[in-house]
């Protein structure tokens, strides 16, 4: 039925842990809550969601990054982004900012609303050693640039990175051609609806459910994944997800593992301890952003 493809079963569940970051933004961290909760090339996934301005208004004042990419996907709300290069971007509901910190960026990410819901995600994707010291760069992706695909079995998928291949459709998202070949889909399914997407056998993949629940895997083996949980998928080349009784909304993320050592010190992610010490010295001396 699946032309010889092997369905990826649910291998490990990482329940998001409540934490706070920046100047006190409340969030849920799944990947990245410990060094053992990474999935190469993905370092971290934070979900923020609140109707209470006290949970988000302090935002993320000026802070540095080196050695990886940050992907901010805003579902609800309005955030202003500014960096040391003078770039200024207005992130609105449905927009994505794909930032490659490279050798260094100092930026702020500040909510621009005092009422209503602020909801979205920040994903950290590692850079290969050869790209960690390249100049910083950005892509601000308008909601209109993100394809929304109606699924035959009900529901819809937004294609942020990589290519959706389901129901005989092939739809490319705005982000293509990166070293880690990321797939980033936002999928919404009504109760009981199924979704299938091929993912290269050599890539790592996980699902993060943020509304409802889903079962993941081939029908006979499928395991359930609750809201605010990341499900790391086992080897295979096909992802199969079925929505639970209240429907499901989830992110499907996949990427090519780098297979390189990861040494992290807060917002610096390099390959060796020496490179981290250099990053700290460069930040202190101003060299990080020169
Ligand atoms: Co940042």
Could you describe the 3D structure shown?
- The N and C termini lie far apart (56 Å).
- The mean pLDDT is 94.
- This protein has a single domain (10-255), classed as Jelly Rolls (Sandwich).
- The chain has 290 residues and is mostly beta strands.
- The strands form five sheets. Strands 1, 13, 14, 17, 18, 19, 20, 21 and 22 form a nine-stranded antiparallel sheet that branches. The chain has a seven-stranded antiparallel sheet with strand order 2-3-4-11-6-9-12, with no helix packed on it.
- Helix content is 4%, strand content 52%.
- Cobalt (II) ion (CO) binds next to strand 5 and strand 10.
Helix proportion: under 10%
- The counted number of beta strands is 24
CATH superfamily placement: Jelly Rolls
* CATH structural class: Mainly Beta
How many domain regions? 1
Q: Assign the CATH architecture.
A: Sandwich
What number is the mean pLDDT?
A: 94
Distance between the termini: 56 Å
Summarize the topology:
Elements: E1 10-15, E2 17-21, E3 25-29, E4 42-50, E5 60-65, E6 68-76, E7 78-83, E8 88-92, E9 96-100, E10 105-111, E11 118-126, E12 137-141, E13 148-150, E14 156-161, E15 163-166, E16 169-172, E17 183-189, E18 194-198, E19 204-216, E20 223-225, E21 229-233, E22 238-255, E23 263-265, E24 268-270, H1 273-285
Antiparallel strand pairs: 1-21, 2-3, 3-4, 4-11, 5-10, 6-9, 6-11, 7-8, 7-10, 9-12, 13-14, 14-17, 15-16, 17-22, 18-22, 19-20, 19-21, 19-22, 23-24
Bound molecules: cobalt (II) ion.
